[in-house]
Structure formats: C-alpha cells, structure tokens
Specification:
heterodimer, B: alpha+beta, Alpha-Beta Plaits
C-alpha cells in the first residue's frame, strides 16, 4: 500500500477537510441560550478574565441564524423545551450543541415533572459538561473538546462512511436494557 | 441638552479655557479606557497556563485506600443516601477469606458516580464514616457521551502508592477495622505479601510492598514484637 502519500512531506497531506475543520473550529459563534445559573458562568467565560474570544467565540448572537453552537446552560423546563428546539431548528448547519451543567445534561438534582431530564431529549448533544454550575475553565475545556471534535469531522464521502460505521456499531452493540455488568 | 448649553454659557469658564474644555470633552469620555491600557491584563490563559484551584475546591471524587492497599470503602451506602441528586450508586459485597478488599465485613462491590447528576456539594464526603470518599481538585470532566460520564469504581479508586499491596489480601494479622481506622496500620506486612505471592505470583505491586513490609518499623506487628 506504499503510495505517494507516504513519501510526500507533511504539509502536502493537508486535505480539504482539515482546512474546513480548522475554519469551522476557529470561529464558532454561540447562540444566546442562557436558561439559569449556568448562564452566569457562561457570561463570565465571555468576560475579560476568561476571555472566550481567544478561541474566536466572543460573539454571542441573539439571532440563531448567525450562530454555529448552542450552549444550553441551565435547567431546561418542560415549558422552555419547545423554544429551545425551535431555536436549534433555526440555526444554520453545521451546528453543534454543548450541554452545560448537570441540569441541562441529565436533569441534575431536579428529578421532577417540571424539568426535562437532559436536553438530549430534544436536541442532539455533542459535549456534556458536568458541574453545578461548571466554572468557566470547565466550559473552556468543554469548548476545546468540541473544537477537537469539529476539527476531525470528516467531509463528503468520508462523512457518509463514518456515519455508516457508527450506525453499524450501534446496531451491533448490546442494548442498554440488556447491559447488566456488575449491577444485579 | 439645552439646559447644559445654557449653563455652560452662563457660568462656565470663559475664553481660551472654555475652548480647551470643549476640545477635550470627547477625549475625557475615554478616561477609563485609556487608564486601563496601562494596567496589567487580567485574562487567564487557561488551557496553556493552569492556575490551581482553591485548596478545598470540590472536584472529582476519589475512593481512598489504607496504607497496606486495602480499600477504605465499606459499601455502607451512606454517601448514596446523603446525595441530594441521587448521583451515587453503591452495592456492598461480603469480604471473604479469599477476597478481602477492605478491613471488616463488607466492601463496596459496585461503586458508580454519575457526574451528569452530581452537583459537587460534598454531602457524600461528610457522610462517609471511614473517610473513604474525598474530593480532589480535578475539574476537567467534559465528555461526548452520557455513559462515559458515569464513573465506575475503577475510575474513582485511588491509584496504589509506592509500597501498597493490591487488594484483595487479608488484613494485618491481629488487627480489627478499628485499628485500621485509627491509623495503626502503616504498611503491608510480610504475611500479607506472602499471601499475595502465593495467590497471584505475577502481581506487579509485590516487590515494592515486600520492601515496604521489611522497612516498616511502626506497624502493629512491629510494635507487638517490641512489647
């Protein structure tokens, strides 16, 4: 299988997907989706001390049409869920979702009828971030994890292949209800 | 606006002074901006320069061990009962002569913390009767799946320090779990090392534990010899 790609210098191996990934990760604009106390930490991350603009994300857009990433920060109530879904639907693709904090990720300590038990019930989440609320460094860490993920997103035919591989793996996996492990 | 003009014409400085103040008026609004330019930047360069957290910051949990390598967790589930978010799942198991994981009768067979529920309040730490569960300062926990953020016992258990003997192995001879709790056990004994060498000859902690057992002078077995 030794081809020209093994002899080529490193810079020549850069592909379109690398370039696109770099461009996408370097200017992700978040949509303003502050729902509760986590939003305060999100705002702090946008402030001077933690300065999210070091990663090209300082522009919190009020319009979902201008945004690439939604940081669901705070508990998501049943009443708010359709609104969040609508904002997500209005965002132009490609789009990503960070579930910030325990409540947005799983309902947290609010296991009751008013709170959606995790915002992944209504939107596909790329990164889950624990904490109550997470400190700004934790949010930055999650954002950098997401950047890594976005940078390595395959494009075109590779993307179709990757999606098929994920689907095949999911079909072959043991369903959650059949996973027993150490639990009796 | 109109009032301002009237007052400046009636009682303001006259002539050249007034002209100067009108010239500088737009600049004066930038006073805060200009003065901030000469102050040091407050921005923390987080991923590149990591500032330590406060010493008692509530970070990731850790399940501790006694100095001879036995686990401190006794599987009592008090942490799970204390947890306001129901983030902890514990299932105790019985210690047997062949599988002694912690001093006493019981040990935590299954231990899981769901970090997507955990609110890092520290009530589990306060509830723990053997100080098995503590919190570190580690906060970088983000992950791409919900399953991945349920930490199991392997993730939470403190790594074996130099000189600790990997569990399971019998307790130090002639001690109770109370002696362990009071800190009387300071290192594995040679009897424990021999037991592990017989049961699991390829255990990687054997060598260091053997050295620690030989050099330990303050343990209960050493003191018993002195008496």
């Amino acid at each position: 299988m030794a081809g020209i790609e093994e002899k080529a210098p490193g810079f020549a191996l850069g592909t379109i997907s690398d370039l696109v990934g770099l461009a996408r990760k370097a200017s992700m604009w978040p949509v303003t989706m502050g729902l509760a106390c986590c939003a305060i930490e999100m705002m702090a991350t946008g402030g001077a001390r933690f300065d999210i603009s070091r990663f090209g994300m300082e522009v919190f857009r009020a319009s979902p049409r201008h945004a690439d990433v939604m940081i669901v920060s705070g508990r998501l109530s049943q009443k708010m869920a359709p609104v969040v879904r609508q904002v997500y639907d209005q965002m132009a693709g490609p789009k990503w979702v960070i579930s910030m904090g325990a409540c947005a990720s799983s309902g947290g300590m609010f296991n009751n009828y008013a709170i959606v038990q995790g915002c992944d019930h209504i939107v596909p989440v790329d990164i889950y971030l624990p904490g109550c609320p997470p400190r700004p460094e934790m949010l930055l860490h999650a954002i950098l994890e997401l950047h890594e993920q976005v940078k390595n997103t395959p494009l075109g035919l590779d993307r179709v292949k990757a999606a098929r591989a994920v689907e095949a793996a999911a079909l072959a996996a043991v369903p959650v209800q059949a996973q027993k492990g150490l639990l009796a | 606006m109109a009032e301002e003009k009237k007052s400046s014409t009636s009682s303001g400085p006259s002539g050249i002074g007034r002209a100067l103040s009108e010239l500088l008026a737009p600049v004066a609004g930038f006073g805060v901006t200009f003065s901030n330019m000469f102050r040091p930047a407050v921005t923390e360069q987080y991923p590149f320069v990591k500032h330590p957290t406060a010493p008692r910051y509530h970070g990731r949990h850790q399940l501790n061990r006694y100095p001879d390598g036995l686990e401190k967790c006794i599987g009592c589930e008090l942490c799970a009962w204390a947890c306001p978010a129901d983030a902890i799942f514990v299932e105790g198991g019985d210690n047997t002569p062949d599988g002694q994981y912690s001093p006493g009768e019981r040990y935590g067979r299954v231990y899981q913390i769901n970090y997507l529920r955990c609110i890092f309040c520290g009530l589990c730490i306060e509830a723990c009767p053997t100080r098995a569960l503590t919190m570190g300062n580690d906060f970088e926990l983000a992950g791409p799946t919900r399953e991945g953020l349920i930490f199991t016992k392997e993730d939470l258990l403190a790594p074996l320090k130099e000189g600790m003997l990997a569990a399971p192995h019998p307790m130090v001879e002639g001690t109770t779990d109370g002696d362990y709790y009071r800190g009387d056990v300071t290192a594995p004994t040679s009897a424990q090392v021999d037991w592990v060498a017989e049961q699991r000859p390829e255990d990687p902690t054997l060598e260091a534990a053997g050295r620690a057992a030989a050099s330990d002078t303050s343990g209960p077995s050493a003191r018993k010899g002195a008496k």
